[in-house]
Amino acid sequence: MTTLRQEREQLYFDLWEGKRPKRVPIEIMANLTYAIEYMGYSLKRELYSAEKCVEAAEKMAELIDSDNLPTIPNNESAVFRYTKAQFMVPGNDGFFQHPNISPLTQEEYPEFSKNPLDFIVKKIQPRVFGILEDDPEFGHVRINIARQVVANQFAGQVPRLMEKYQRSGAVSVGLLIWAPFDFLADYIRSFSNVLLDIRKKPEWVLEACEAILEYELKQVEMLPKPFPGTVPTILLPLHMAPFMKPSDFEKFYWPTFQRLIEGIQERGYQANMYCEENWTPHLEALNDLPGRCQIAFETSDPKKIAAVVSKKHIFANGYPTELLKTGTKEQCIDKAKELLDILAPGENYIFAITKPFLRKNDTNMDNVQALVEFVKEYGKY
Length: 381
Description:
Distance between the termini: 22 Å
Mean pLDDT: 95
GO molecular function, one term: uroporphyrinogen decarboxylase activity
Strand order of the largest sheet: 1-9-8-7-6-5-4
Order of helices and strands: HEHHHHEEHHHHHEHHHEHEEHEHHEH
GO biological process, one term: porphyrin-containing compound biosynthetic process
Low-confidence stretches: none
Protein name: Uroporphyrinogen decarboxylase (URO-D) domain-containing protein
């Protein structure tokens, strides 16, 4: 007898094999911060309690009957605090955000490009982890121990919840990495500085992107063998492209990104990317990506996606998260129908919200539940 979980997983297997699934898969993501506040808990306290985090994640699974597990019961907030991490900083209410930091100076580009791993370990990490300044000799050991302690607290919870609530585990995630240019912008040069760098030191930026590409592909090579019986993927949040003019995108962003996707696939993984903001000006470039990729879109025009992007790829997202907070049930369902009418006929669509719920007031749970039930029926082929 086929279980509900097997039925849900088959939806994804069919998509990745280029077959028509029985219906459009449904993915709703609720961040652990949302789940904790939904329970009435404080981020400044319960975000550091593995027991409360698991309780909150389980509550989301009870409330949201999507095909995925809506909330992952795992977080490293305690690690960020313990290691004095500057790349994830809590606000007064306990919510963590990524500040616009630049631990790499412009003059250090050539040194970084010669050996990114060595530079990251010896110079960048000490600049972003306060614990390495406090304890240069054993700081890295302490970071690894902290991460392992936190991981042990959540060990086994994801598969337990997937089985209990019959959610799909068809797609596994081996690693989260960035397009080489995004790596520069998000973590070592900052959004603002990297856009100045491409004007003042364009060759240094190109050399750095090449070095980052090699560094990231080595990370993929070091991964253990993919979990059998799943579609093994690498997650890629794509950030900077919408803020670049086409000529800069073609010169600085696309070449190393395309080769990164090729390298990921050559190493036995599939690319699962999220095109943040509006990628409409760059949609045609996605047709040059090899193989079958999953491409999620935030605010790109769905009609242009359907018309321009090759159906060899899997499309995801597109449903505006904000509408679930501000709209009536009828408005929420009408928008879902509109998107399904545009994107579902390609038989390569995963219905998903554009952004996960982050804070307690980000959505109306009644609307979410009505949306899921509607898509289950209307999304049948």
